[in-house]
Fold this protein.
Amino acid sequence: MKRKTWPILLVLVCLSLGESVLLAAEPVKSCPADNENIKPDPNCKEQKEPACPNDVRIEKDIPYLGTNIWEKLDLYSPADIGDKQYFPCIVNIHGGGWKQGDKASPRDQSIATDLARSGYICANINYTLSVLGPCWPQNLYDCKTAVQFLRKNAKLYHIDPNNIGAIGASAGGHLSAMLGVIGPEVGLEPPGPYKGISSRVQAVVPMYGVHDFNKNFSDYVNGLIKDFLGTTRERDPNLWTWASPVSHVSPDDPPFLFLHGTLDELVPLEQSIELDEKLRQNGIESQLISIEAGHSFGLHPEQRDLRPAVIAFFDKHLKPKKKTEKTAENIKEN
């Protein structure tokens, strides 16, 4: 696939002035995260984070895919990092129906800030969207390239390259799950620029993602899937199966923690149940937390504060048990 670069910026600006809402409408009140047209809700805790909190350092628009490419990442880190301190890293993948959304949405800023305050480096990424046409598998390549970039530059960004996780909501939930189940043997590794560097992650938190494209969805959701895959299920059922996380589960997959709303009318709870059960059948540690919510929520919705569970999960699987501080001698650039 030939990458489209700067024209995407103009189209995204136009979209931001439109009226479409992608995978964001829900019957239960929560934080509007995927559509920048929605005015901030003063009662939504996840929109009250300051742009630059004093205890978190934010480095914006890092060109992880190379120069002259619009999609970049923002890196959230603990404010005070010693020269010889290294932290586990988490890649955060925004939602938006694979068609829109941004790394700096209120929800994604909130997630990254919470993780940085808990002793993680968090990389919020933008990735190829279907706004200009089909984007599969380039969107997955971008997510994998982000993991490779962070490993390649682990010493520079104070990252422990052996402990990288992923979290994502909605479309980002699908892509984060794919990061978890897709190994190099599948044939979906990025063609460059970091060939030879592992794109595997060690823990995954998918939030209300689509995990089996062959199940029944609304025409609206089927249309979003068609737009990013470039074909309908009827024309290419094998591709719809290939792009589904449930098709790639194997015993060497990392642990998963699913977050999903019982009132989700766009992506039914059964999507997370199915992948959770398949992982456990293959001997993978997996857990599903459901709350009485619709499709779009962050880590501290009004129904339940999910931060303790998410942080405990990442701590268990990404933080070394014997040492919480690694020295520069232990970290090798890949």
In short: The first strand starts at residue 56 and ends at 62. Residues 138-152 form the longest helix (15 residues).
